[in-house]
Every structure is written in structure tokens, then in C-alpha cells.
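Q: For a teaching session next week I want to show students how multiple molecules come together into a single three-dimensional assembly. I've collected the sequence lines for a complex. Could you give me the predicted C-alpha cells for the whole thing so I can convert them for display?
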Amino acid sequence: MSDLKQIPVVAKETGKERTNPLANVFDELIRFAQARSMFMLHYCTGCGAIELPPAMTSRFDMERLGIQPMVTPRQADILLITGYVSIKTLKRIILTYEQMPSPKYVIGICSCTVNGGMYWQSYATAKKLNEYLPVDLYIAGCMPRPEAVIEGLRLLMDNIKSGKSEPWKDYYQRYDYYLGNQQHLFGDDWQTPTDIIGEAEHFGLMGPETEGEHTRLLQQHQQPLEPHKMRLK
Amino acid sequence: MMDQELDRTLVSIFNEMEKVDYQQKSPRRLRVDVAPEALPGLLELLKGKASYVHLSAISCVDWIEEEEFELVYHVWSYEVNSLVSAHTRIPREGACYLSVYDLYKPAGFFERDIYEMYGVYFEGSPHMEKFILTEWNGPPPMLKDFDAEAYVQDTFNWQDYQPDWLKDLEEAGGGVEIRPEDVRR
Ligand code: SF4
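A: Of course. Below is the structure for the complete assembly, covering every listed component.
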């Protein structure tokens, strides 16, 4: 993955300079709190998921680190990809990822998420997860033991605490790149219900590569989303 | 039980039909080679007369050099306690065969799977449409002439295997022994 710091951010001039001397202290406090309270989406893709039950429950007990499983993407911070990702699953992963509120973190567990692992010559599995989603860190192994999973989560916590874990911004700043790779796999008419460009504008995270040829292609065929009609019988 | 002697019903069935060639592979396994036009009739007799009521699988083999597909129907009897595998070969070009859905309902499932993976069309099968690979537009992937490795090489990129952290390891005398690039073509 390219280094985040090299990507220039086009920051919106809000006119609000940070004048409060305590702002940085608060930031640190918030990051500390964030790192100690994380919800991990229960979404398991491959065989590596089998190491999660021991990691979560009394034997290795992830909750002592403040990490808890959560059942819906809208209330989760961490997306654990626990193994090989088939093309069909990848679509669902992207839909799920886009629904999660920022800041959000992706961890690829298992060699399969790094490079296809033992499915490297399979037509049906995606190879490099970080082409389609910004991945915070990979935990290699086939499959990694719970100790390794917890080690990885600790590293993520440290990164959050020190403010280094910001690949989720990359998804907004280089949306065109990610969308291009997604279109390459799923076809040109690929569309998700989340308006990433709109969100990027809202969060002030527009980068020079947020929009490009792929997002233009998306806009050509994009169908506006309509709310479901509520009906009572 | 089908120990030494073949079940008498089976023998009478095989004698009733032409173009049937059978071999006893083991006490409970019988291999029957049959011409494609005779296979539905054979299955019908096996089911109706010899209690082979359970179609446990249909498998398909792609014999690319002989330009043929081999279809294998595995039927099981709970009374004789034995498995009959009926093999038949159909031409590979424009492969099409008769469905046995009306005889064995599970056949619909196996035929749909074979149609998706090998492109063999089954006439009369109720659901000749996509099954598991709903989002796949390429050729049937189990065909021998579909080169999955070449497809992967054109479609996907590989992880960079020269990361910075590896340099430290290499300086200390470690590193990756066999690089993925050397294993892949
Ligand atoms: S790396 Fe191994 S354990 Fe993990 S998903 Fe792949 S095959 Fe399964």
C-alpha cells in the first residue's frame, strides 16, 4: 500500500483554526479511549475464523483488551477478514465495509487475504485484499493462532493510540483507485448503495484521487437509491 | 448381499440390455459401462426392479484428448447394500444429454452443478441456470481447457515481496527462501 503521508489532502478551508491549547490533549484522550473500546464485526469469511472463538472467549479473552464482537456493521469498528475471500464474498465485504461508521479498521487474518494463500491459482478467490479495501494490518499464517490474532489487535490498538492507523481515510482519498479495482473484478456496472464521494465531501476528506475515470463511469450508470416504502398491512 | 455372486436381478437386468459391460470392483461396488442411449433405461430398470433408489451423485469427467465427457451415475440400494456406478461417454462438442430428473429428483441438483462447471446441458432438467457461480461470466471453470492459472495471472496482481521489513531480515541472513515468483510461471 502506498504511504498515506505521501498523499496530499485537499483540506477544506473552514476558517476555524485550532486555538485551544488543550485540543491535542483531548485528541490523545479520545484516541486512547477509542483504542480501548472496539467492536469487532462478526463476519467470517474463511477457515481462519475457527481461531476466533478461542480468541474471544475465556481462554484468550479478547474482552480484556476492550474488544467485543458486534453483530451489525453499523455499530462496529473493526472488520476482521478471517480467511480466503471469494469474489462473491468480496462484494459483500465491500458493502459491509462501506456501511461501517468511520473511523474503521480492517484486519486481514490468514495468508489467503495477503496473497491468495493456498488458493493462489483459483479463479474464484481474490488475491490482494488491499487492492479493494484499505487494510490496516495483516496477520499471516495458515491459520494464525489466537496469540497472533491478539498480538495483531494489540498492534492495532497501539497504532490507534498513536494516531497512525488511518487507512480508512485512504478509502475516501483514493476512492477512484479502489473503485477501479472493484470494477475490474465485478464489471463496469458495479454499484454500492453508499455514496462514498458524498461522504468524503462531508468529512472533508476529498483527495485528488477521490474522483477519476472510474467514478465517472460509476456516475454514468448509477441509479439513484430510493427509500423503501413503509407499508402497514 | 452381493458377495461372490452377482445379484440375480442385476444379472437379469444386464442380460435384458445390449451394450452393457459390467465389472465387479469389490463386493459392494459394481461398475457398469453403458452406451448413452441405454443409460436412462438401465437406471429405470435398476430403480424399478432392483431397488437402487438412491442416486447419490452424478459426476463428470472431462476427457479432453478423446473429446468426450464421461458421466457417472452412482446409485445405491438399501436392500442389496451395494453401489452401482453407471459410466457413459458423450461427445464433448456441444455436450448435451438427457436428464434423469423424472426418475431421480436429486438429479436436478447434480445436473445443474455439472451444467455450470462443465457446460453439459441436460434436456428436461428443471433448472438449467446458474447455481453457485452466479457472478461468473467466464467459461465453465472445470473444463480442462480452462487455464485457471493463466486467468489468475491476467486478472489479479500479487503482493509486493520486497517490503522494507524484509530487508532487515535479509541483512541478518534470513529472508524468503523460495519467492512466489519462482513458483509461479
Ligand atoms: S490461510 Fe489457511 S486457514 Fe486461512 S483461509 Fe487460507 S487456507 Fe484457510
